[in-house]
Amino acid sequence: MSSPPAVVRERLDRAFQVVAGKGGVGRTLVASAIALRASQRGERVLLLEVNAPDSCARFLGVAPAPDEPREVLPNLWLCRMTPAGAMKEYALLILRFKALYTLVFENRLVKYLLRSIPSLAELTMMGKAWYHTTETLDDGSPRYTRVVVDAPATGHAMTFLSLSRIVADVVPPGVLKVAAEKMAALIESPIDSCLHLVALPEEMPVNEALELAVFSAKKLHMATGIGVMN
Asked: Contact 44/75 with Cβ under 8 angstroms?
C-alpha cells in the first residue's frame, strides 16, 4: 500500500484534530480510526467524545470511559465528555478545592442557574478539551501528543467550536475571557489544529460538509484537515 501524500500525513500528525460532519455519516468511526492509527505509531493519543453514546468505545471494542480519560489500548486513552463532568472538572481547575466546588456548584439554586445559561455545556467541554492539550508528564513532555475530538453533528459542532472565540470577544477582562482566549487560540492555530470532514455520497451530507468547510474557513479560522467520503 502506498503512503499517503505529505499534506495528509501532516494533517494527521497535528496535535489537535476535530472530526465533524452530519449525524450518521460515520464521523465517530473515522475519529476512532485516526486515533487508533496514531496510537499504533507510538503517539500518546486521547480520543474525546462530545456528549455521545459511547460509540467510540463500541468501535474500539473497549469499555466506556465517561468524564475521566482512561487508557483503553496501548497508547490510546478514551474519554466521553459530558456537560456535568466537564463543568465539575473545569470548576475544580479554577476553585482548586473540592470542598469549595461542592459548596458552590452543588448548591441547588446554582445548579439551576448554570443549566439556564445558553451553550455553557459546550464551553466547558471545549475547556476540558483544551486543558488536556496542556497536560504534561513529570519530565515536562506532553501527556498526550495527539488529542482527537469526535465532535457532535454539524449544527452543534459549529457552536462547540465557535463559542470560545465569541466569549473571548464579548466578555469583560477576567478569568473567563483568559480561558476563552486560550481555547480560541488552540482552534485557530495554523500549525497545531485542523478540522476533518466526513460525509456520505448523498446530497444532504455533502452539502452539510461543504457548509462546515466554509464556516471553518471564514468564521472559525481553523485549518482544513482531510475529507472522508464513506
From this structure: yes
Whose grid coordinates read 441547588? 108
Per-residue confidence in pLDDT tens, the chain, 230 aa: 456 688 889 999 999 999 999 988 999 999 999 999 999 999 999 999 998 888 999 999 999 999 999 999 999 999 999 887 787 776 666 545 455 455 444 556 445 444 544 567 788 889 899 999 999 999 999 999 999 999 998 888 998 999 899 888 988 888 778 888 999 999 999 999 999 999 999 999 999 999 999 999 999 999 999 999 98
Only one residue has cell 465557535, namely: 162
DSSP 84-138: HHHHHHHHHHHH--HHHHHHHHTSHHHHHHHHTSTTHHHHHHHHHHHHHHH-B-T
What counts of helices (H) and strands (E) characterise the chain? 10, 7
Instruction: Give the predicted TM-score (pTM) of the model.
Output: 0.88
Return all residues near 7 (Cβ < 8 A) that are at least 6 apart. Answer: none
* DSSP assigned state of 139: T
